[in-house]
Amino acid sequence: MHLCEIATERRERPQHGGKCGNDRGGLGESAALQEPDIPPWRAFPRLRARSILGPVSQPALLSDSNLSALPPRFAAWFRARGWQPHPHQLQMLRAADAGESALLIAPTGGGKTLAGFLPSLVDLAARQGESRTEGLHTLYISPLKALAVDIHRNLTQPIEEMGLAIPCETRTGDTPQSKRQRQRRKPPAILMTTPESLALLLSYYDAPEVFAGLKCVIIDELHALAGTKRGDLLSLGLTRLQSLSPGCRRVGLSATVHDPDWLAAWISPTAGPAGVRRIIGRDGAEAEVEILTTKEYLPWSGHMAVHAIAEVYQRIRTAETTLVFVNTRAQAELVFQELWRLNDDGLAIALHHGSLAVEQRRKVEAAMAAGKLRAVVATSSLDLGIDWAAVDLVVQVGAPKGSARLLQRIGRANHQLDQPSRALLVPANRFEVLECRAALEAVAARSLDGDPPRPGGLDVLSQHILGTACAGPFAADRLYQEIITAYPYKSLTRQDFDKALDFVSTGGYALKSYERYRRLGLDPQGFYRVAHISHVKRYRMNVGTIVEAPVLKIRMRNGRVLGEVEEYFVNGLLPGDSFIFAGQLLCFEGMRDNTVLVSRGKGGDPKVPAYAGGRLPLSTHLAERVRGILSNPAQWQDLPPAVAEWLRIQRWRSVLPDASGLLVETFPRGEKEFLVAYSFEGRNAHQTLGMLLTRRMERAGLAPLGFVATDYVIAVWSLKPAGDLAALFDEDMLGDDLEEWMAESSMLRRTFRKVAVIAGLIEARSPGQEKSGRQVTFNADLIYDVLRKHEPDHILLQATRADAAGGLTDIGRLAEMLKRIQGRIEHRRLEKISPLAVPVLLEIGKEQVYGSGLDELLDEGAQALIEEATAGMEIGRGQSELPL
Amino acid sequence: MSGAAETPAPQPERRSDRLLVNGVELIADHCGALLWPERRLAVVADLHFEKGSAFAERGQFLPPYDTAATLDKLEAVLARHAVERLVCLGDSFHDQGAAARLPAPIVRRLRDLTARHHWIWIAGNHDPAPPEDLGGSVETTWTEGALTFRHEAEPGPKAGAVFGEVSGHFHPKAAVRVRGKRISAPCFITDGRRLILPAFGAYTGGLHVLDPAIAGLLAPRFQVMLLGRRQVFAFPHSAVVG
Fold it and tell me: So what's the pLDDT on residue A455?
């Protein structure tokens, strides 16, 4: 969505820098040579004025009223370029003058970053010549290293052009040791860094001196940090900063979000929404979003959208530069492969996802910035970060899963202009058509989805307590008071804080067995101190909250590293197996020294990497809209004929799910009984529901054999039919059954491992050795088992359960649904499968199932299912209208 | 199922927990212990007592219940089978200070066990000198009938040429594929001549049997027995995946 002011086109003064930043592009004077290999007709749209200021008003509209709000040196600089500051940039200045914290919500391309920096630049410029200009003035924190580096480049220019002497530096994991030490001795006025680097800086004894004069902290992409464990860590770091420099203002920069009150409270130094000035950037042109109506046969199930790739390719041909977003890495590999199969024009199409080697990703990004690519197939690895002005089309392959995410992705196109962003949604199956339609309506209505805030993790809290001790002695009371000013921890009880402190000190075990090995000692004055310097060293090696699944490097025989894959994927490979990675067909040769050795594959059926993660569940918000579309036939006329027809047959054979109750169909099939519930609560909640339903059916003697969950429905099959559905779907299933299942599930074990690493129980890195996932010297599962048996109330188990109740199990969402449907279950007993049930039954065999007895089902052909569901209709496989 | 019911041909009873090493018939218990019923002898490897507190000494506070958990398991297996003698194949104590760190109730339980059984502590690399005051006798190797018990397998002249050796040290684990799913578990591994036991201790990780350090010790046609929840599962070498 493009939501900003009119931009000036300056064809006569080609610029190059503009390709790398929504609001962070190059500046007027930075005219670099245009790439020689780009023909002039292609070069044109890339050569628009870009500025860190974002789009600027046309000279004709210039009035000096806005400029007069700026100090003369700044006004002159704007005027020299014929530019005008945005209203929200001036509002940010006023917030700074009032000494208030601020939350700026503006779409990409709105000059957001400069709006954040402008007050600091103005203040620093005014202080020039004063004797007290030394020291750190403004800290900028971004979720991405690359973004910090990019912003640095783009901020240096106006500083130089205005003749200001404001030292401005980055500090990330890549910063050389000597420079890092110097930065602590003599900090620059503006420092750009990441949440992890901030935590490290705060763990040094000299943090009070470094941050004493800090005036402002700017947090970029706040929407991407708040609500995550990285955000938890950052929020705690901010409380430390506030104590070290009480006058420090906070500035949050965020994309358009569902709940601005929450972000305002998050950024607030008092954890409440008051006292934070909210500044909203202007909306711009409406995005043009279209759903691909395929000419091909629209699949009943599957997520790869291979049927539509030829049509996507045609769009890429007619666009300047296209970003093709997919939902998973496996999808990225496949779509990339399919595009190249069709790429007779030899278009420069690249691939970008989180498993590729870093150098390769950087190469793709650089080629994109240089305008050398026509398309990039990308996962969420490109959701955030440096933007490219030249992108004029965004394609979303597969359903978007949430409207906020879709908006963010669409926003990656055409940032700075008065023209709307263009986007194409490519549904991979029939349900996804409905979901795309729902997302489109949501975007048009500007209604976004978002998770309710969750309390900060106790594992992150433990890490922070140790980090605080590394910097110097602390008193427990004061630290607790400080911590509850962080929004995620505002409801932290003293009891939980004490438990975390006890965990950090001695492990927090009831037996107090480790009293003599205390990590934190308590001195007679009541201060906690680190007992030994080695703990400090180890804290610094393990700081951060990003716990990766164990991964292995993929290496060609000539030694070239292609990237990394999760260990579990490699575990499923036999030597000679082929798979697609980094867009190439590879043959697995074997393991060598903890790397995966591969050679070029020679055909055969590739096994596309089925990586974990990347699969977001359908948001509650979109689910509601999908239910709305289904229950209202008046809305079907806009749907592709194949989909409308499918829904009509459903209405004839069974009934359509209504907007708020729960439709459950049961029918026999083969020797088995099927139950399909149309609950639309997303894959994670459905997985949990499946586990719980099968347990109850087991107890009821129905002999459940398996289940499969999609984003839309859950299907369970058993030997005997389920009769009493009200009892089956009773809310009490979230009691003992849930407890029991959670405790045993491997999901909880994985969650425990992450919690244990973040809290420092298991160290990913320790001095003198780098453990790979393969070589842990003890087993997190076994530790989990022992802890569960001997100390079920341990703080890390508490933290594990809290994590598990969110994300992967979506218990909150399930609970809401169960409550809503009590007394409103519509049960249809059918003689055979209904059309709406076909997609989920086709998923059987692709998804994990429970128990045994699935082999027979695997043999059943997909086509047989479809024919049965549509039998008696005059349609077969065609997409013609159904004569009703 | 098709065709008329037939009388099944009499099959010799095949129990997957039986194994033959150098002609001696042994039983692999799913908890990781080896039993020699004829001699009323049990064998366990790599107990790693007080591994938790060894890490705690360095400030990494693993739960302090590992020794108790290991002992629970050991008592259970001794109660399940009529065992008179127990051989611990070394690395029974995680480090030299482990014995001193044992909590008092654990010491009492251990003394009670060593008093009721003929108990042999074989020295390992983690515990070159196991404590003398807990009862039992300390040995470097122990020979009984056709079997020799030691901590770490001897390299031997060539793979598969050592007969009757039973050892631990490597914490072997193996993975197999069942219906496309990879299942990995600690295991016994034998080529019929020598046998390596899985680790018995509560926090012990494992080394895959295809690692040359293990695979190089056995004849190519080895067999593994994976520890399941209720029983062991035997697989030929060909079923083992990386």
Answer: 92
- Taking an 8 Å cut-off on Cβ atoms, the answer to whether A786 and B241 are in contact is no
DSSP string, A14-58: --SGGGG-SS----TT--PPPPTTS-HHHHGGG-----TT-S---
Identify the structural domains of chain A with CATH numbers, from first to last.
Answer: 85-274 (3.40.50.300), 288-437 (3.40.50.300), 551-600 (no CATH), 620-730+822-870 (no CATH)
Inspect the interface and report whether the beta carbons of A778 and B203 lie closer than 8 Å. yes
Q: Which of A783, A789, A790 is nearest residue B203 as measured by Cβ atoms?
A: A783
Give first-to-last CA distance, chain B, whole Å: 35
Query: What's the CA gap between A187 and A137, in Å, rounded?
Result: 9
Confidence at residue A400, expressed as pLDDT on a 0 to 100 scale: 85
Q: How many CB atoms lie within 10 A of CB B197?
A: 27
The rounded distance, in Å, linking the Cα atoms of A778 and B199 is: 12
**SS3 of residue A498 by DSSP:** helix
pLDDT at residue B199 above 90? yes
What pLDDT, on the 0 to 100 scale, is given for residue A511? 80
How high is the pLDDT of residue A355? 82
B185: contact with A, CB 8 A cutoff? no
Nearest chain A CA: its distance from B204 CA (Å): 5
**3-class DSSP state for residue A160?**
helix
* Residues in A touching B202 (Cβ below 8 Å): 782, 786
If residue A394 lies in a helix (H) or strand (E), which one and from where to where? strand A393-397
Write the pLDDT tens digit of every residue in B131-143. Answer: 989 999 999 999 9
Size of interface A-B (CB pairs under 8 A): 95
Cβ <8 Å between A506 and B175: no
Q: What is the mean pLDDT of residues A315-333?
A: 90
Mean pLDDT of the residues in chain B: 87
| A662 pLDDT higher than 80 | yes
Residues 190-209 of B with CB under 8 A from A: 202-206
Most confident segment among A782-791, A850-859, B4-13: A782-791
Instruction: Provide the ipTM.
Output: 0.83
Pairwise pLDDT comparison (A734 vs A466), residue with the higher score: A466
Closest residue in chain B to residue A511, using alpha carbons only: B64
Interchain proximity A786–B202, CB inside 8 Å? yes
13-32 in B: which are within 8 Å (CB) of A?
none
Query: Could you tell me if B63 lies within 8 Å of chain A, comparing CB atoms?
Result: yes
Q: How confident is the model at residue A604 (pLDDT cuts 50, 70, 90)?
A: low
Nearest CB neighbour to B63, from listed A519, A575, A783? A783
Closest A-chain CA to B103: A513
CATH number of B18-241: 3.60.21
Contact A600, A612 (CB under 8 A): no
Higher pLDDT, B150 or A420: B150
Query: Using N-to-C axis directions, what is the helix angle for A862-870 and A641-653, rounded to 10°?
Result: 60
Selected for mutation to probe chain B from A778, A784, A787, A856 (highest B CB count within 10 Å) is A778
Give me the residue spans of the domains in chain B.
18-241
Q: What is the pLDDT of residue A36?
A: 31
**A787 to B63: CB separation less than 8 angstroms, yes or no:** yes
Over the stretch B156-165, which tens digit does the pLDDT of each residue have? 777 667 889 9
Q: Do B62 and A779 touch (CB under 8 A)?
A: no
The strand ranges marked E within A383-438 are 393-397, 422-426
Per DSSP bridges, beta strands A561-566 and A578-581 are unpaired
- Whether pLDDT at A131 is above 70: no
Q: Is B58 on the interface with A (CB under 8 A)?
A: yes
Least confident interval from A22-26, A370-374, A812-816, B109-113: A22-26
Chain A residue numbers touching B55 (CB-CB < 8 A): 778
